[in-house]
């Protein structure tokens, strides 16, 4: 046998082994689900815990920053009604209610003040994207959180930098 045939045979064996292992795992999961329902009789089986998707270190830092910003805004008297609302045009980090005003909040974090800091990273392109996304969400948001009344809205930016948290109310207006 030449080297190509040996390599092909080894690859085929490894692939077959991987397929068998996947089937075994699937069968084990199916058995676990079946026994859960039987063990509890008429009582509903406990639901599996929702798994958070795996996040990179940068995404974990962003989630932590959003948690800190939401906590800061709650202490300031705003009510956080939604997080990470996505549309095809972009994402709004936090949606809050400040009295009757709907507040779309962008959270930015920087480890250093170089290059203008966190507030400077909300440039014209980012502001336009936020406004387009908010426009798509506005009708649904008014129906959900202001009882269908036309709500005024504003755009705030919360920055997290080594110096601390900074809340820029009405950071920019619709152009």
CATH class of the largest domain: Alpha Beta
The helicity comes to 40-55%
Mean pLDDT value: 81
User: In angstroms, what is the radius of gyration?
Assistant: 25 Å
N-C termini distance: 73 Å
The tally of beta strands, per DSSP, is 5
Q: Would you give the CATH topology of the largest domain? A: Trna Endonuclease, Chain: A, domain 1
Order of strands across the main sheet: 1-2-3-4-5
Largest sheet entry? 5 strands, mixed
Name the poorly predicted regions.
Answer: 36-46
Task: Describe the model.
- This protein is an alpha+beta fold and 175 residues long.
- The protein has two domains: 1-51; 57-172, 3-Layer(aba) Sandwich (Trna Endonuclease, Chain: A, domain 1).
- 47% of the residues lie in helices and 26% in strands.
- The protein has four helices and five strands; from the N terminus they run ααβββααββ.
- The chain has helices at 3-39, 57-75, 117-120, 124-145; strands spanning 79-87, 90-98, 101-109, 153-161, 164-172.
- It has a five-stranded mixed beta sheet with strand order 1-2-3-4-5, with helices on both faces.
- β4 and β5 (164-172) form a beta hairpin.
- The longest helix is centred in the N-terminal third of the chain and has 37 residues, at 3-39.
- The radius of gyration is 25 Å and the shape is elongated.
- Residues 36-46 have low confidence and may be disordered.
Brief summary of the model shown:
The chain is α+β, with helices and mostly antiparallel strands and 175 residues long. It is built from four helices and five strands, in the order ααβββααββ.
């Amino acid at each position: 046998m030449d080297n190509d045939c040996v390599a092909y045979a080894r690859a085929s064996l490894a692939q077959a082994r991987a397929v068998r292992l996947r089937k075994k795992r699937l069968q084990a999961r199916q058995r676990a689900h079946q026994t859960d329902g039987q063990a509890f009789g008429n009582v509903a089986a406990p639901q599996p815990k929702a798994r958070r998707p795996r996040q990179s270190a940068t995404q974990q830092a962003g989630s932590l920053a959003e948690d800190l910003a939401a906590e800061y805004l709650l202490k300031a008297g705003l009510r956080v009604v939604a997080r990470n609302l996505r549309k095809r045009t972009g994402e709004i980090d936090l949606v809050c209610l400040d009295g009757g005003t709907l507040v779309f909040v962008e959270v930015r974090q920087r480890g250093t003040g170089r290059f203008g800091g966190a507030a400077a990273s909300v440039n014209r392109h980012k502001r336009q994207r936020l406004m387009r996304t908010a426009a798509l969400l506005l009708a649904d948001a008014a129906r959900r959180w202001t009882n269908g009344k036309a709500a005024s809205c504003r755009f705030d930016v919360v920055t997290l930098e080594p110096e601390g948290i900074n809340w820029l109310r009405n950071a920019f207006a619709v152009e």
